[in-house]
Amino acid sequence: MKKTNTGNILIAEPFMVDPNFKRSVVLLCDHTKEEGTVGFVLNKPLGLRINELIIDFPQFDIEVYYGGPVQTDSIHYIHNVGGLLDNSTKVVDGVWWGGDFEKLKFLISSEMIKPHNIRFFVGYSGWSPGQLDEEMNFGSWVISDMFANYLFKSRPTKLWKQVMNNIGDAYTVIAQMPDSANWN
DSSP 3-state assignment of 78? Predict the structure, then answer.
């Protein structure tokens, strides 16, 4: 089994029943044995715009995503402009997490950050130390590498299937399984 690291993605096994993670792809932005794991669900749009959630935010036509069930009163962002946004944390090549919020607003107002450069999330996915390892041993998740195109170029509603196909082997067959056993 592949070792879990910051920058990996977790792909929910096809029969996961937890509605927070059913057919989800989660980017791990911080994973340590001592402190646990923080990640964001990449493929669950909420149908809301960022300006509906943050009153004093510059006009920016971008959809917000469900990051996970933890602290759903918080907003987070992942982007590809790490060199522009101070205090960003590099997750993998071409993918950065967070950064100076006031500078973010300035860069958006200045049109230096466009909607294709960033994704916003409500809440996050979190695991206490050892919890994710237990879920991995139970078979709840498949681990794979993260590529910036998954976040910035792929259609979120097709991402789970795309990643499963990209892993190959038996996962290509799994990707073809219907979302509900009732469809069989």
Answer: strand
Cα gap 130→145, rounded to integer Å: 21
Identify which of 120, 65, 113, 73 has the alpha carbon closest to the alpha carbon of residue 98: 120
Q: Evaluate if residue 183 carries a pLDDT over 50.
A: no
Write phi, then psi, for 145 (nearest 5 degrees).
-80, 150
Domain that holds residue 58: 8-174
Mean pLDDT, residues 42-47 taken together: 97
pLDDT band, very low/low/confident/very high, at 107 (cuts 50, 70, 90)? very high
- This prediction has a pTM of 0.92
Residue 99: HSE in the Cβ half-sphere, 13 Å Cα cutoff: 26
**What domain count does the chain have?**
1
Lowest pLDDT segment from 33-42, 84-93, 137-146, 160-169: 160-169
Q: Report if residue 103 sits inside a domain.
A: yes
Instruction: Determine phi and psi for 146, rounding to 5 degrees.
Output: -95, 140
Residue 67 is part of a domain; what is its CATH number?
3.40.1740.10
Measured at the CA of 33, the angle between CA 75 and CA 152, to 5 degrees, comes to 40
